[in-house]
Amino acid sequence: MARGGWSQWWNVCERSTIPALRARPDVTPAALVRLSVRACGQPAQPSPTTWQHGRVTAATHSTLFPQVPDSADAVLDGLDPEQREVATALHGPVCVLAGAGTGKTRAITHRIAYGVRAGVLHPSSVLAVTFTNRAAGEMRGRLRQLGAAGVQARTFHSAALRQLQYFWPKAIGGSMPRLVDRKIQLVADAAAACRIRLDRGELRDVTAEIEWSKVTQTVPADYAPAAAKAGRESPRDPAEIAQLYAAYEEVKRERSVIDFEDVLLLTVAVLQDRHDIAEQIRAQYQHFVVDEYQDVSPLQQRLLDLWLGERDSLCVVGDASQTIYSFTGATPDHLLDFRTRHPGATVVKLVRDYRSTPQVVHLANGLLAQARGRAADHRLELVSQRAPGPDPVYAEYTDEPAEAEGAARRIRELIDSGVPASEIAILFRTNAQSETYEQALADAAVPYQLRGAERFFDRPEVRKAGIALRGAARFGGNDSLLDDVVDLPSQVRAVLSGEGWTTQPPAGSGAVRERWESLAALVNLAQDFAAAKPGATLADLVAELDERANAQHAPTVQGVTLASLHSAKGLEWDVVFLVGVAEGMMPITYAKTDEQIEEERRLLYVGVTRAREHLHVSWALSRSPGGRPSRRPSRFLDGLRPGSTATTGRATAGGAGGIERGIPGTRGSAPKRAQRVPARCRVCGRTLTDPGEMKLMRCDDCPSDMNEGLYERLREWRADQARSSGQPAFCVFTDRTLMAIAESAPDDERELARIPGVGMRKLTRYGADVLAICAGQSLAESTDQD
């Protein structure tokens, strides 16, 4: 490689490496994985210490172990059958589909520890990667407690950065460029070079778009079509984003700096370009474990592929139903396609939920029962291992302040009864909702801490708005904005319009929307303040804001956690309050597409599964006191909360726990008969028991979407088959089976095989004809194509 400086080499990487990564052919969609118990002759071997809940070490609640196990076999003590299967599957690709609270970290750390203690894995040859430093630290701690110190547990970026720093002199020469931890200033400089004005919120949003482009391996010239294909709502004109992206890259080159995405891109480029370095890394790391695999981006997957080379010593763990970061480039496709990429993989499903009570688990399962899309097809049906607890509490309030006060009042009662404040959380959809709950908790003398967000009154836009309001209160007579307004709410709207507030919210999500929500909260506060205190002045409002800001400086230790649903991922509490669960907030207003709606449903699922025992779900009918009660509870609660009916939609059957072993060396297989699971109506979700309804996969009184023309063509074909074989027509297919085929119109043998009444014998004999008819082909055309 030429040593003409890293920037020259980076130019080569940008022109060749990234397009090459982007051009890799897509992997075909993975077949639905059907899991079964161990094969005949291979009974599960229970641990000497029973794994039944009550004697098993808590799967998720505690990471403390009393002592280091004295042997390799002792590492397996206390694991349930599926966790034990994960721990002992040390060779070949392994995919662990782990539901919320099922002990996935426990399973994979015991797997690594068992391999190390048994002498199969050398500690220094194992690289475990996850997505947060907290998770990596927890994993290292658990491994030490299991007697497996020396294993590397890092984030993708941390592992790549160490490798890049070590090999930089050999691969490129000279010193590695400085790594910048924040992009915003560089983006601001790029915008100045392009003569484009961006406020603070827009800077954050443009930065997010650049990050998304890089992790999806999109170069500036391709940003506009890539963003359109992904359904992203750009914060500015896509052509401007592309221009800013290109300018940003140029600013980095001029200053000889790199960002965090460059760490991954450059590591990928080094491994692709320098096979000697790639082989050196592969000689070091021979076994890989990837946690939260549903959140892997295309760039991270490419890096993982290069680490692996031609080997398959890989264990991945994830849950497609907890994919809530697709806006950052994360995709569950790598998890769902794992069996296609690795046909010989062992697949284990963990569904025993050790975190939550049966009542909480029932609600979590119900949320996903009406889900749609690919992730929903692979959902896991959780089975609680805990003793029964209280039912979830649903509460409706007249307005948002009343909802916050109700939550604070109940929390005060819980704390007084002995529940630690640190075991209670209030979870909401957007950070802008926090202010109302901060105030309510402060009024109730309840300590709290904010996670993943600044305190409301510490946010830059709120502080700036406060300065503007204070100035208007002092010198309003000289402000032309206030010439034509008389009442307090109008004055506040006029002042904040100069700070970016508008009557209509901006399109899409991101920093601009969050900034608008903060200013809108101030506007709403002014309206409520004026209604409560007629005749109040702008100065009175400023004084009220100052008092609120001072009163909310509560201690941040041992307090109730206030967090957005996104920042709550991976955490758990004894008591969880899910607030604001109303249409417009859950799902959020700007979630328009089916994919976005389904991600909102998964986000609520993540919130529900944070609760161990007590779950409170609430919503308000109006925003402010005296407002029109026009809101309604979230559609996601239809059929789950008392007094509601289920939303019409397709219900999917959840997967049971178990193990499926792949066949090494295979590249696919004939369609398998699905494992028998409870049949549910695909329209209303009711469990079916009538044989005729089970064939149709719907209740008789649920609406049919049958293609009448297809049904008639199938009947004509069946009559011909019956005549030629000399048997009654129902021996070919019954009327109910033909109706089910006409309703589902299967595209391939796997879909056809799922229809009750279509066995392997009939699939082999009639499958090609039926699929040709469903595709609108004549049987002569189908024969010619064959």
TrEMBL record:
<dbReference type="GO" id="GO:0043138">
    <property type="term" value="F:3'-5' DNA helicase activity"/>
</dbReference>
<keyword id="KW-0067">ATP-binding</keyword>
<dbReference type="GO" id="GO:0003677">
    <property type="term" value="F:DNA binding"/>
</dbReference>
<feature type="domain" description="UvrD-like helicase C-terminal">
    <location>
        <begin position="358"/>
        <end position="613"/>
    </location>
</feature>
<keyword id="KW-0413">Isomerase</keyword>
<dbReference type="InterPro" id="IPR000212">
    <property type="entry name" value="DNA_helicase_UvrD/REP"/>
</dbReference>
<keyword id="KW-0347">Helicase</keyword>
<dbReference type="GO" id="GO:0016887">
    <property type="term" value="F:ATP hydrolysis activity"/>
</dbReference>
<keyword id="KW-0378">Hydrolase</keyword>
<feature type="domain" description="UvrD-like helicase ATP-binding">
    <location>
        <begin position="77"/>
        <end position="357"/>
    </location>
</feature>
<dbReference type="InterPro" id="IPR014017">
    <property type="entry name" value="DNA_helicase_UvrD-like_C"/>
</dbReference>
<dbReference type="InterPro" id="IPR044876">
    <property type="entry name" value="HRDC_dom_sf"/>
</dbReference>
<protein>
    <recommendedName>
        <fullName>ATP-dependent DNA helicase UvrD2</fullName>
        <ecNumber>5.6.2.4</ecNumber>
    </recommendedName>
</protein>
<feature type="compositionally biased region" description="Low complexity">
    <location>
        <begin position="642"/>
        <end position="651"/>
    </location>
</feature>
<dbReference type="Pfam" id="PF13361">
    <property type="entry name" value="UvrD_C"/>
</dbReference>
<dbReference type="Pfam" id="PF00580">
    <property type="entry name" value="UvrD-helicase"/>
</dbReference>
<keyword id="KW-0238">DNA-binding</keyword>
<dbReference type="GO" id="GO:0033202">
    <property type="term" value="C:DNA helicase complex"/>
</dbReference>
<feature type="region of interest" description="Disordered">
    <location>
        <begin position="621"/>
        <end position="676"/>
    </location>
</feature>
<dbReference type="GO" id="GO:0005524">
    <property type="term" value="F:ATP binding"/>
</dbReference>
<feature type="binding site">
    <location>
        <begin position="98"/>
        <end position="105"/>
    </location>
    <ligand>
        <name>ATP</name>
    </ligand>
</feature>
<dbReference type="InterPro" id="IPR002121">
    <property type="entry name" value="HRDC_dom"/>
</dbReference>
<dbReference type="GO" id="GO:0000725">
    <property type="term" value="P:recombinational repair"/>
</dbReference>
<dbReference type="InterPro" id="IPR014016">
    <property type="entry name" value="UvrD-like_ATP-bd"/>
</dbReference>
<comment type="similarity">
    <text>Belongs to the helicase family. UvrD subfamily.</text>
</comment>
<dbReference type="InterPro" id="IPR027417">
    <property type="entry name" value="P-loop_NTPase"/>
</dbReference>
<keyword id="KW-0227">DNA damage</keyword>
<keyword id="KW-0234">DNA repair</keyword>
<dbReference type="InterPro" id="IPR010997">
    <property type="entry name" value="HRDC-like_sf"/>
</dbReference>
<dbReference type="GO" id="GO:0005829">
    <property type="term" value="C:cytosol"/>
</dbReference>
<keyword id="KW-0547">Nucleotide-binding</keyword>
<dbReference type="InterPro" id="IPR013986">
    <property type="entry name" value="DExx_box_DNA_helicase_dom_sf"/>
</dbReference>
<dbReference type="Pfam" id="PF00570">
    <property type="entry name" value="HRDC"/>
</dbReference>
<feature type="domain" description="HRDC">
    <location>
        <begin position="704"/>
        <end position="784"/>
    </location>
</feature>
